């Protein structure tokens, strides 16, 4: 009778994949990406430190260590988005092209940003405790207007208009484009190029027909 041979099976502990430890810089960037997505999705008030830390897979103290809290993280996210958008607008305005072409490029720069960085623009147009008159949408319009102001001043001077009004007209122009962009963010129709063309149509033809001394006619 043949005996059964039983092999000894040695059970070894299953290898646990080593967790890649992020550097401080990598962790900071990860938290910024997570925060950006959550702030765009839920807004400042609707986002908590708990959600940020859970989605990033870290403890809450890690978020506090890098940013001091939700407010600090939000401020950095907003600053980055503002810088990115203003860089695009500044580049468009820096060309030596005809003023109408410059206006077209600036309008397209904003719409391009909305199209490619939708989360970022959603954050900029939201209200939050750290974005009153010095941040977010109000700051976006103010900073962009300061870029447009010197171009308008030069055009006003060449056409015999008072240059002191250039800052006010810059606010009007940028506000019109930015608010239209906020509307287009949701509807996405008509096409980007068509929206830019209509914006320039109103702005350019309005500027071309400016009165030297405008007055209200309502009696």
What does this structure look like?
It comes from Jiangella aurantiaca. This is TetR/AcrR family transcriptional regulator. Keywords: DNA-binding, Transcription, Transcription regulation. The protein has 219 residues and is mainly α. The chain has a domain at 77-205: Orthogonal Bundle (Tetracycline Repressor, domain 2), CATH 1.10.357.10. It contains 9 helices and no strands. The chain has helices at residues 24-42, 49-56, 60-67, 70-93, 99-116, 118-124, 136-158, 166-187, 192-208. The protein is elongated and about 65 Å long. 26% of the residues are buried. The model has no long low-confidence stretch (mean pLDDT 86).
Outline of this structure?
Helix content is 67%, strand content 0%. It has helices spanning 24-42, 49-56, 60-67, 70-93, 99-116, 118-124, 136-158, 166-187, 192-208. The longest helix has 24 residues, at 70-93.
| Beta strand % | under 5%
Helix content: 55-70%
Oligomeric state as shown: single chain
| Radius of gyration based on Cα positions | 26 Å
Order of helices and strands: HHHHHHHHH
CATH homologous superfamily label of the domain at 77-205: Tetracycline Repressor, domain 2
Indicate the low-confidence ranges by residue numbers: none
Largest sheet: none
Inertia-based shape: elongated
**Helix-strand category:** mainly alpha
**Quantity of strands, as a count:** 0
CATH architectural group of the domain at 77-205? Orthogonal Bundle
Measure the end-to-end span: 122 Å
Average pLDDT confidence is 86
What fold name goes in the CATH topology slot of the domain at 77-205?
Answer: Tetracycline Repressor, domain 2
Q: DSSP helix count?
A: 9
Could you name the CATH class of the domain at 77-205? Mainly Alpha
């Amino acid at each position: 009778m043949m005996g059964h041979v039983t092999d000894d099976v040695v059970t070894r502990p299953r290898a646990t994949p080593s967790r890649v430890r992020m550097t401080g810089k990598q962790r900071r960037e990860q938290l910024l990406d997570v925060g950006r997505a959550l702030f765009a999705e839920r807004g400042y008030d609707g986002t908590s430190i708990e959600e940020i830390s859970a989605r990033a897979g870290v403890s809450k103290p890690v978020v506090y260590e890098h940013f001091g809290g939700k407010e600090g993280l939000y401020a950095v996210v907003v600053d980055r988005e503002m810088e990115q958008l203003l860089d695009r607008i500044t580049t468009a305005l820096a060309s030596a092209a005809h003023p109408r072409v410059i206006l077209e490029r600036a309008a397209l720069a904003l719409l391009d940003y909305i199209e490619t960085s939708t989360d970022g623009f959603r954050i900029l147009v939201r209200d939050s405790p750290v974005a009153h008159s010095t941040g977010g949408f109000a700051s976006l319009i103010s900073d962009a207007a300061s870029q447009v102001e010197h171009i308008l001043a030069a055009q006003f001077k060449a056409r015999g208009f008072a240059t002191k009004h250039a800052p006010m007209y810059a606010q009007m122009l940028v506000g019109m484009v930015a608010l239209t962009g906020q509307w287009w963010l949701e509807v996405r129709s008509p096409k980007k190029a068509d929206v830019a063309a209509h914006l320039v149509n109103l702005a350019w033809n309005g500027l071309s027909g400016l009165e030297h001394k405008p007055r209200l006619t309502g009696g």
